Each structure stands twice: as structure tokens, then as C-alpha cells.
Hints:
Strand content of chain B: 15-25%
Largest interface: A-B, 75 and 74 residues
Strand order of the largest sheet of chain A: 1-2
Oligomer: heterodimer
Order of helices and strands of chain A: HHHHHHHHEEHHHHHHHHHHHHHH
Distance between the termini of chain B: 71 Å
Number of strands of chain B: 11
Shape of chain A: globular
CATH architecture of the largest domain in chain B: 3-Layer(aba) Sandwich
Number of helices of chain A: 22
Number of strands of chain A: 2
Structural class of chain A: mainly alpha
Helix content of chain B: 40-55%
Shape of chain B: globular
Number of domains of chain B: 2
Amino acid sequence: MSSFNVDAALAAVSIVFALDTALFIMIGIVVGISVGALPGLAHSLPIALVLPFSFFLPIHQTMGLLIGTYQGGTYGGSITAISFGTPGTPGAAATVTDGYALTKQGKGKKALQMGLYASVVGGIFGSIVLIFLVVPIGQMAPRFGPGELTALYFLALSLVVVFSTENPGKGILSAGIGFFLAVIGRDIITGGLRFTFGIRYMQSGFPLVPLLMGFFALPELIYQIHGVIRDPDKAGKVGDQPVELHSKTEEGLGFREMWRSWRGIGIGSVVGTFLGALPGPGATLAAYTSYSVTGQFTKDRNYGKGSLEGVAAAESANNATCGATFIPLLTFGIPGSSISALLMAALIMEGVPVGPRVVVDHTQVVYTLFLLILVANPFNLLFGKLLIPVFTRLTKIPSAVLWPIIAVVLVIGTYAYNSRPFDILMCIVAGLIGYFYKWFKLPDGPLILAFLVTPLFEASFRQALTISRGNWMFFLGSNISRVLWVVTIVAVIFFVVKRKRHSEEE
Amino acid sequence: MYGKRFLIAMVVASLVVAPGLFAAGQAEVDDAAAADEITIVVGFGAGGSNDLSARFLAEALGRHGITANVVNMPGGMGTEAAYYVSTQRPNSNIFMWAHPLIMLFEPAAGDRGFTIHDFEPVGTLASPTFAVGSKAGAPWDTLDELIQYIQDNPGEVVLGGQGEGNMMHFIAELILDPSELDYTYVGLAGGADVALNLTGGHVDLGHLSLAAARPLHEDGDLTVLVNTQILIERDPLMPEIPNVIEFGIDGQEPHPLALWAPQGTSQATIERITNAMAEIAQDSAFVERYQGIGIVAHYLDPDETWEFFMDVEENMVPRYKAWLEDYLAGD
């Protein structure tokens, strides 16, 4: 970046700290949290919906609204993940295991607070890295070509091993199902069809949002509604006061508990920022990577069964991607994710041509963006805190009322993802898979990781082989690749040895 | 007991909501008068050039009294959206924003559930310009020098394009004929991926939009060699960049974006929209906006639009199909 421009910085401060900007950030945060908390309505949807405002709002208001929606939505996804075991957004899927387990243990409020604080810390970390290290990290992104990305995605796939340590057979089966679902659709090179069974809608593959919604939400939905039918008296009725599942004054998160999760928050913030800066991985992969890496270093014996650190690891990572996703956009004008493409479109619609010279030609706009991304975090904290009691209370609504409402919202949210009725059927299929997983107690981590990483790995692997004309040494052609391969081998050995020691101790 | 009743009511509501959603897009309106409100379906995600061009059009239509809502329906290179629109009833006021890649080349590559004959043209307005650029510091400055370099250094140059086996790959091979030139083509994920690989030096050449290439060209991160615009030779965005036709290469890309209505749509509606589009194309502020995103604002009325697409279907698509057969056979 060029030298610091004091005048532009002061102008940006005066714009961001104006009442109208704050108002639009707040509106964005509230819209983001609310929509993010609705299962299926990925936060790219509200961002796309507010995009047309770019035509008539000034840039600081538009970007305040969009950034607020983005950050609020990224956090909001954790609310339903923790409260109902149904991720509001794909990025919150990794939060479900520990978050919902805590809710069932009567510690839902603690989990929601941990999700919020970790999100804010991760968000601030990602924003600060964006502000101070945008150029060095931005320069790094183009150095990841097909060879380097193959090594990186192989490292991510090796995390399947981590998820499988409890029972390797179940882990491999779970990952295998994930691989299978990921290859459905058109071959990325030849365009040939794979496992579409003559269904034309399957040509574009198994959609991510219906998969996650169905996989996590439907089994729980069936379980809860089964409970209502089996024992209607316990399920409550319309007009009942919320049932007190837990003590009336449910304990909140203490500072010590927060502090004990420093590893998860730290790992999540770093992993989220790193993966967020790279085109491709996104918040969901960042959260799963952080969750699985933290699992290897945590001292919490409840990790995976109701751990605050598990919530912290996933939530800090997905929010850390928010700032980092701007890095390739502001250094090269290249959007690294669908969200940054939307934000780039908003800038273009506001008359700001995005490219490598945007920092020089539109310094004040870039400084305004930096500040907006940073300032949105305290607003996220404020509204998150205000809304936690509301969502804590929602979990106490009688099952006979709550779960049918979730079912309707799930159908609407899944449809809204792509405006395709077929996605609702895919959601139901994913629900059957999820039920199968619950029945046989299969770990969900390998499935999600394999599903997310396989297409990325396949693309970069085949591209690398094409570029090198079949020369496998190409995968060791750069220092970045070599380091990543070494890290992969060391990590797998570390996980296996650790598991062996753990088994011996038991 | 009440809980059970409520549960049953909600289940019934779910069952009502789902088919309602199925039917939502099928709603038919009275076609006696020209429509005041339409939906423009874009076959790609929000934020790209297809989407932005549709949004600019929608905003401009609003000033002509037509409320246009843009809906993104990504999947299958735009064919999911085109199939969806093709199955709508006439006068549902749902329109497709599509170029020949979606309307002609994809259906030619395989059954996509629709053909161009399921639609009626409303008008063409946008023609995105694509370009071939080379990485910074490449040992050539022009297309001729590049061709000479490839001939002198067989197997060395790597061209990064947007996918494989599609129209854009076909065009890239029209510009650099692999039967005469020994280079490697690699299909990347899209324009942003091409730009990243080019700036990172992972590929030597890239096939990407002029709008994406220009800022990187001006910053010295890559060099734009040639544009492939089909409707005009020199793009006003970078008039110094020659068109591929100037090198005697028949590699201009048929990329113009047109608005399409399902067959049988009210002529009053089509006429109203196409008249508005004709006026919009004369609006200098609109033309400038399009230019800023690397799109040439060029209006073709419904007849001209049909003529243009049919010309592509007759002259280019058969060559594409033959090329695709060879490509899939590994020749």
C-alpha cells in the first residue's frame, strides 16, 4: 500500500463515525443476525437483496449496510446452530456439535455468549490483519497456484483423519459418503455427467445449503416431532408460557470460562484469517479446520460433546474470514468469494472501479471500508447481547409449537437459497442421510470436510497435472508446496501417535 | 391436545407452503395490457458481469416505468435458469438475460431441457468484451510475437481459460490453434481464477474479461494483447488494444447479452420493453456505466437479435459441435 494518507484517514473517520453511517451499520447487523438465524437463508441472500440500494444510497451508507449484514449474518448462523442444532448458515455447521450439546445440557446461554464473543474477537482480529497486513497477505494469495492449492487441500483432507480417530472405520465411511456426494454433477473438466441418474437438476451437483440444512435439521426435527406425537402432554400447547427447561436464571458465561477457551479463539482467528484471504475455502471450511485443529490441542475433555472451546474455535474462525475476504479484492480487485463478489459489485455500482490501484485512486473509500469492517464488530457485540436473551427464551418454547415453525422456515429457507423447488427434495434426501448418521453414530465432520474440499482438491489437482503435462514433481515445485506437504505428513503422524498414546492411557 | 392440533395445523401449513413455492414461479397474469413489472432471471451469481449488466438494465427500465426485479439462479453455466424460464407460462413476465453460450452452445453440447426456440427475443443491449492477456514480463508484446514464441518454444506456454469444453475454450483454440501451435490449455474456475493465476505467474496467458484485465494491465500485473469483441472492433474502454479480427483470426466471441421471453409472451409487453431498451442504449450515462464494467452498450431490436443468434447457430455452433466431439475423443 502507498504511504499512509492522513487527510483521507481523517475524512474516513468523520464519515464512519457519523450518525447515518452508524444507523445503516445497525440496520445491517440486525438484518444480518435475523436472516442468518433463519435456517437455509445464507447471508449472501440478504446481501444480494440490499445490493440494489447501491443505486441511490451514498457509498458509506451502502457499505455500512452490506458489511453490517455480512458480519451480523456470519454470527447469526450460530444462534440456531446452538439453540436448535440447525445451522443458520453453512459457516455455522461446525458449531452444531458442541453448541447444541451445551444447550441440551442447560448451558445454551453460555454457548450463545461464547459464540458471540468468539465471533467478535475473530472478526476484530481479521479486520486488524486486513488493515495492517493487506498488502503482504494480498501478495501471498496469487502465489497459491494449482500446485500449492493441491497441497493445501490435501492438508485439509488429512483432517478427516483427525475426525476419525475415535473410530477410523466410521470416519472413513463418513468421508466416503462426502466424497460421493461431492462428485455428483458435471465433471469439472470434460463436462460429462457423474451420478446424476438422468435427473437434470442434479447436473449442477448436490447443493451445499440444502445438504447442511437437511443433514443437521431434519433428524432433529423428526426426533422432536416424534417426541411430541409420543407424549403430547409434555410437548406443551399453543398459548403456554415457555417451559422452563433450565433454571430460571440461567448462568451466563464467566470470564474464566472465556479465558479457558483462548486456544480455540486464537486458532480460529488465525486459521479463519488465513483461509479467508485465499480464494476458495470460505467460512465453512475455515470453521471446520479450526474446530478440528483446536481439538488436537484442547485440554477440555468434553470437546465434541459440549465444549465451549469447540464453539469458540468454530465461531472465531468463520467471523475472522469476514475481514480477510477483502484482501484479494483490495490488492488485485479479484473477489475471492461469492460474498466479496457481491461487495465488489456494490462498489462498482457506486462508481468505484475495483482493482490494484483502488487503494491509491480511492484511498478515502478504502479507509472507510477498513473502519466500517472494524466498527461493525462492536455493533455485532451490542446487538448480539441484546438478542441472546430473546433466543435463549426461544429454546424454551413448547416443542409442539417450536419445531413445526422450524420445519416451515426450513422449507422456505431452502427454497430461497436458489429459488429451486428441487432443493427441498435434496434437503429431505440430506435429512435421510443425517438420520442414518445419527442412527449409526457416524461422525459428521469427515462428511462435511470431504464434501467441501473434494471439488476444490479435484480442480486444482487436475489443473496442476494439465499445466505440468503429467509431471508429478510439479507438486513439489515451490517452497509453499513443499512446506504444506511436510506439514501434512507431520500432522498426520502427530495425530496418529497422539491417538495411540491416548488409547494406551485408557 | 391443543399441541397436537397445532402440530397438525403446522404440518398442513408446510404441505401447503411447499406446493405454493413450486407454483410461485408459474403464476400467470392477465396479458391484456403491457406489463409494468417484470422479473429478469440471471443464470449466474450476484456480483458478476452478467448480474451487474442486468441490474443496470433493471435500474434503467425503472426510469421508463417498468419495475424489473433481478433474480439470480446460478447453475449449469446459466442453463438451469434458462430451463426454468423456458418452462414458465407465456405472460408470466419472467424473462431470461442470456448470451449465446447459454442459448446455443450449451444446448448444442448436450440436452439441457430447452433450446433457443422455446424463447422469443426482446432485445440485445450488452456485449461484454473478453481479452487475451499475458503475464507480466512475458517475452512477447503482441499476438504475432506470441505465436512466433510458441512456434520457437513448443510445449512451454500455458494458457489459462475459463473451463474446458465450452464455448470459451473453443474460442481460445480458434485464436491459438492447437493443431498448429504446441501449448497447454488449462481450464480454470472463472475470470477471477484466471486473473489470480496470471498475476501469480502460474499461467503465461489468460482468457478473461477486459474489465477484469484492464486495472491489472494498468498496474503492470499483466499485459492485454488482444480483445475478442464481436460487435465492434476496438473497445472504448481500451481503444489501443487491437481486435483479434485485425490479425486475420476468426475468433471473435459471440457474447452479446439479450433479454428473452418465454414463447407466446404478449407482444405488447415485448414491444414496451424493447422500446425502453432502445432509448436506454442512447442514454450516455448508461453507456458510460456499462463501459465501466467492460460492456459495450449495443442495442439490437428483436428481429436483429434473432438474426444475430441464428447466424451464430448456423455458422459457429456446427463448428463448435465438431470441435467438441474431437475434444471429447481426445484428438
